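Changelog note: in this version the structure field was regenerated for every chain. One regenerated record is shown below for reference.
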Amino acid sequence: MSRGETLDAPSVQPVFDPADPGQSLDVVRAMLPLNARWHKGIFAGEQPSLKLGSGRERDGIRDYESGDSTRDIDWRLLAREEDQFATPQIRERHRDITPALWIVTDLGQSRNRIINQRDNPGEFPEQFLAMSAVVALMRIAQAKNMRWGVIASDDHGIAIADRHPKGGRNNFLHNAERFAELVAPDEDKHVKAEYPLAELFRFAGEKCSGSVVAVVSDFRSEAAPEPGKDPSWQQPLEFLSKKNDLITVETTNPWDFRFPETDDRIMVDGKVIDVGNGRRGRANRARYEHDSQQQAQAIQEALTSAGARQISLSTERGRWLDDFTAQLTGREAA
């Protein structure tokens, strides 16, 4: 290599692989160093202190109010007051003023699983892309000194529901192992119907308040609604947004929008579709593309109505992390 030359960046960035959660977790985390500046724009506010934050007042101190714990009174400050009837001062702690991050996802549902490589459109499985986005969000929360919790569903209901958000390095590996178990195929259970996305959002709406909520999903758990009707999950998502700062990460693959030209049978979201060939095949492809566009438009309108900050990732683009960070910071992706 001559002087001044640089190696080309890889066309496909690594994604989280549940078959090796420990190593793949380190790989994805390594791409998001804690001192990175691009993560600054994902959550409002400057990076908080490990111990104290800004509080309601500029110096993080406010007057005592009925119901406050006496353990939070700044006794040293009170002792310096000349007035013996002075109002005690409360020093607001970091845990009270820094919002938690809740990650809400349905990536454990079977429609996201790819068993045969032939049915894997794009550079990597969509389920792996969704898990990578979750890991990236947790990494950013760690950089912002935030605690995070996970609410995840599979075909049968709520599979993961943390009681309280947590932080720390050990929490990374714990979550990686839980996701690896969540997406493992379960041949002993027969799926009759998917757990509705609307129910997942209702559950999250009852649990999350005053937090940053990041929803990671393809938002395609149901067919496109009829014209003039909203998706069934739109109202629960709007309720969730009213109580929290909402971010949505939509994952897609090429077959969410069109059929491949070479196959007359294809698996889409866990379902085998007989496309057909000849005139019948062309008609089915045209109908599918029309319905897919209608569904994509309904999803976009629902997310916008909920006031979400939207991120969209596709398995068709191998450099997923560039897309992820560009949309967080408002920069143009490579």
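Spot check on this record: The CA atoms of residues 32 and 173 lie 16 Å apart. The beta strands are 61-63, 89-91, 101-105, 148-154, 157-161, 212-217, 245-252, 265-268, 271-274, 309-314.
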